[in-house]
Structures are given as C-alpha cells and as structure tokens.
Amino acid sequence: MYCPYCRNPDSRVVDSRLGDDGSAIRRRRQCPQCGRRFSTVETTSLSVIKRSGAGEPFSRSKIINGVRKACQGRPVTEDDLALLAQEVEENIRASGVAEIDAHEVGLAILEPLRKLDQIAYLRFASVYRGFESLEDFEDAIDTLRRQAEDGARVPGGAQRPLTAR
Ligand SMILES: [Zn+2]
C-alpha cells in the first residue's frame, strides 16, 4: 500500500475498525516517511462466476440493474432497490463463500424481491427460472399464496385471525 502523498511503499496501521455491516475493515495508516495519515478499506473479495466460467467482482449495481426491469411500473423506489441489493450481498457474504455462481445470485435475489413486490417477483422469476407455461405461473402464484397465508397465521395456532368468518 503506497502512501498517497509521497508514494513511500510502506505504512503503519494506527487504528482498525469494523464497518457498520461487518463486511469491511477500515484501517487508519501512517506513513513513516512523511508522517501523514490516510485510510484504507479492506473487504473480502466476492466473485460471481458466470456461465462462461469467468469470474467478476460481485456488484450491487448489477443486482439493481437486473431487478429494475422487473420493477417497471411498480411502486418500488431506487432506495428499495439499493436496500434489496444490500440485503442480497449481506446474505451471500453471511454464507461465508468467496465465490458464487451467477445462478445462485439470482436465487438469492428471489426471496428479498418477493417481500418487496410480488408482481416484480413473478416477472423476475418467470425470466430467471424460465417459466414456459401458464402452469409455471400458477405454481409460483400458489406458492406466494401459501407463503402469504403462513405469514398471516397467528403464532400459537389455535386462534383464528379476527377477519376470518
Ligand atoms: Zn508518505
């Protein structure tokens, strides 16, 4: 790590702290030659392996671009997309892998997108999972319905929701 002021190739770490989301370490360094201080941010590398076998660094903006099209016309803001991409990255990093298939990244997007917007989810899933028939959509919608019912169920089981007749 060269000193950005005098290009001295050596520096001394004077402080280290973990970033807010735990995925980066910020180090305060001092150059022993000119005495000036600067910061570096260290992140673990996370590579996405494409179908061709080539790897590229994980990119939140690629996640956002991939999902944005499915969200056209839906009440989804740029902030929502940024948070979704952050959640996807945190989930992948939490799994402790250094490399992940592009296909697995798509899978990691599905769940947060389902919570964000069900129509966008169906659009994304139809492209991503290659839906070929109405039955594929019906299956996906059935799954969404079941998940919605599970989510509405009152913990404890015996009670019925107040809206039930
Ligand atoms: Zn220096």
Automatic annotation (TrEMBL):
<keyword id="KW-0805">Transcription regulation</keyword>
<dbReference type="GO" id="GO:0045892">
    <property type="term" value="P:negative regulation of DNA-templated transcription"/>
</dbReference>
<dbReference type="InterPro" id="IPR055173">
    <property type="entry name" value="NrdR-like_N"/>
</dbReference>
<dbReference type="GO" id="GO:0003677">
    <property type="term" value="F:DNA binding"/>
</dbReference>
<keyword id="KW-0678">Repressor</keyword>
<comment type="function">
    <text>Negatively regulates transcription of bacterial ribonucleotide reductase nrd genes and operons by binding to NrdR-boxes.</text>
</comment>
<keyword id="KW-0863">Zinc-finger</keyword>
<keyword id="KW-0862">Zinc</keyword>
<dbReference type="InterPro" id="IPR003796">
    <property type="entry name" value="RNR_NrdR-like"/>
</dbReference>
<keyword id="KW-0804">Transcription</keyword>
<feature type="zinc finger region">
    <location>
        <begin position="3"/>
        <end position="34"/>
    </location>
</feature>
<dbReference type="Pfam" id="PF22811">
    <property type="entry name" value="Zn_ribbon_NrdR"/>
</dbReference>
<keyword id="KW-0238">DNA-binding</keyword>
<dbReference type="GO" id="GO:0005524">
    <property type="term" value="F:ATP binding"/>
</dbReference>
<keyword id="KW-0547">Nucleotide-binding</keyword>
<comment type="similarity">
    <text>Belongs to the NrdR family.</text>
</comment>
<keyword id="KW-0479">Metal-binding</keyword>
<keyword id="KW-0067">ATP-binding</keyword>
<dbReference type="Pfam" id="PF03477">
    <property type="entry name" value="ATP-cone"/>
</dbReference>
<dbReference type="GO" id="GO:0008270">
    <property type="term" value="F:zinc ion binding"/>
</dbReference>
<feature type="domain" description="ATP-cone">
    <location>
        <begin position="46"/>
        <end position="136"/>
    </location>
</feature>
<protein>
    <recommendedName>
        <fullName>Transcriptional repressor NrdR</fullName>
    </recommendedName>
</protein>
<dbReference type="InterPro" id="IPR005144">
    <property type="entry name" value="ATP-cone_dom"/>
</dbReference>
